[in-house]
Specification:
Elements lengths: L3 H27 L6 E5 L6 H17 L3 E5 L6 H8 L7 E4 L2 H10 L7 H4 L24 H10 L1
Parallel strand pairs: 1-2, 1-3
Length: 155
């Protein structure tokens, strides 16, 4: 098992690799303009998505020699950021830190999305990974995932 320091080091290496890949992929398109590069984050400053975006922005700025601005566009669980990206003119270099909630879950559970992840976005690089968990209220009589599925079928 990794120690917390090893895990942090691995995450930073992943972020650095993602930043370099993002910069390499984006460089030809970004060469067309001198406007600052914007990275949109659908969550508030200080959270894990924001921290990842700022790390990526710093690395991209160093690699590309261009101004990179992180903009937090909070609300609707990250969907407002996705809507903003869809409405961004093509001559404004803009990236978004996306996640499964915005790109995969929302289209499955919401009917009125103002974006289509398959048509409106192109993934260019993995930036980080997040661990997710399933939790239930203490009053629910389940303690394992299989128990939860059984309870859901019965109720």
């Amino acid at each position: 098992m990794n120690t917390p320091a090893q895990t942090l080091s691995t995450r930073r290496q992943l972020l650095a690799a993602g930043s370099a890949a993002l910069a390499a992929v984006a460089a030809p398109a970004l060469a067309q303009t001198t406007a600052p590069i914007k990275v949109i984050v659908g969550y508030p400053p200080g959270g894990s998505s924001d921290k990842a975006a700022r790390f990526v922005a710093d690395r991209m700025q160093a690699i590309l020699g261009r101004t990179v601005i992180v903009e937090n566009r909070t609300g609707a669980g990250g969907r407002l950021a996705a809507q903003q990206l869809v409405g961004t003119p093509a001559d404004q270099p803009t990236l978004m830190i996306g996640n499964p909630a915005v790109m995969a879950v929302a289209p499955l559970v919401l009917n009125n999305l103002k974006y289509d992840p398959k048509k409106d976005f192109v993934a260019v690089s993995a930036v980080t990974e997040y661990e997710f968990a399933v939790a239930v209220g203490a009053a629910l009589p389940v303690r394992e995932l299989s128990h939860m599925f059984a309870w859901m079928r019965a109720n």
